[in-house]
Each structure stands twice: as C-alpha cells, then as structure tokens.
Amino acid sequence: MRFPTAYAVLTVAVLLAGLMLPQPVQADAPPPTGRPVLRVVVIDHSPPFSDRDAGGGLVGFNVDFGRELCRSLGAVCSFDAAPFKQIIDDVAAGRFDIGFGNVLRTPDREQRLLFSIPYWRSSTSLVGHRGMPELSLEEAIRSRRVAAIRGSRQHAALVRLADADPKLQSNLIPVSTLDDLWEAMRSGQSDMAIGPTLNVVHFLLSDSGDGFETIGTPMSEDGLGGTVHIVFPPGQHELKASVDRALTALRNDGTYQRINRSYFPFDIY
C-alpha cells in the first residue's frame, strides 16, 4: 500500500491504525493549603504528544490533557520529561506520581505499575524511503537495517525476530529517541524505522518526513498496538481511581475531544 501524499498518509492511518500510540521544567504555581501536589512526567520529545516550545516549555496532547486532569483533580502539578524507558522505571520507583508515557498494558509492566482506564489506542508502522517495496516486519528485519527506540514494544518485537536468527542482529539498530529514529534513516544508519503510527504520521507530515512513506499497513498484533494508559506507582490505588473518574468526566463534558481536535483530525480514543 502506498501513501504518496500527506493526505493519503493521514487517511490510511485513521482507517488502519486501530483507532484507535525532556528535562525538568518549572512547576506550576505553589499550591494553596490543602491542595494535593502531584509530580507528572511525559515523554521527552514525542510530538505531537509532548515537545518543547521556543521558550523551553512543555507542550503537546499529553501535556494539555495532563493539566486538565490536574485541574479536575483539584491538584497542583509539576511537569517533567524523560525518555520512555526512564518513565516506566521512575514511576515504578515512586519518583513521579503520574506517568504519561504512552504506555501499553503488558503482564510484565503490570507487575511494576498501576494502569488507568484507556485514554487512546495505538498501533505500529514501518517507515522507509518512498518507493521501497512493501514488507512485513519479518521481511524487513531480514532484508533491511531497521531502527527502533530501545525499550519500546517495537524494539522488543524486532529483538524476538533477531534472537531466532543471530544473523539478523546486525540489522537491528536501537536508538534512544524519536529524533534519533528519524535521523537514523536520514543519515543512512538504517534503511527503515519502526514506531507508533501517530508519531510516524506526524513525522511524515513534517518537512523532515519529505521523501519517506509508510511501508505496508499499521500493525497491532503481538504487542505492537492496543490501549494506551496513564501509569502510577504500585499501591497508589486511590490516585488511580481519582484519575479514572476525572478521565471519564473529561470525556463526558467534551474537554478530551477539544484537546484531541487541537492535535488530530480524528478521535484517537
């Protein structure tokens, strides 16, 4: 399947993506007496979910929605940003109270974290230079160098394939961030990249994505897609229940949809 234009990329992502997938910043104003203080972490540079504006402030879907959640909870929140894997480790260790890490629910993560009700759905897409033949994930890792973010579900899927055939290890190019993912392709370090579909679409619609396109159709099987959750430290059941109620209320009063429309032309819930 080809996606020769930005409009086609976005349209196919809507139909097939399973729709529906930083550094410390200054805290909000000091809390009045009696208001809870919550430490919130988002992914470092994962547009359109989180990024930094020209002044260094955090922006993006997760940031806007996180602030609305805090308002609904009556809490004052400080927002930090960290790489994906660090978010899981830091929330599990209690260094943050709430994690917006675009985290899929898996049995191993359930041993370390509490999960909110779903707040959007994700899938996975391969991306490569325009004109590249359609490839399955296994065909891709067998014939191309494929970059993936270390610690992600996409990386884990490629590791499983490479472990079954040691000759494929050299075709797996682990990177640390989304920027590194796209740069690996642009620099020739990798032939392809694999990442969450909504991040892929955002890249393809940007100037940096010129000359690239999705390869094949989005994937959601084998842990490559599913419901995305807010995460909490183990034992924080009361906080989880409060966030679940607030999330439901923000869906019911239209706040979620308003923020959604600021970043996506379709409902990602």
From TrEMBL:
Residues 37-267 form the Solute-binding protein family 3/N-terminal domain. It comes from the Bacteria. Residues 1-27 form the signal peptide. CDD domains: PBP2_peptides_like. Keywords: Signal. This is Solute-binding protein family 3/N-terminal domain-containing protein. It comes from Azospirillum brasilense.
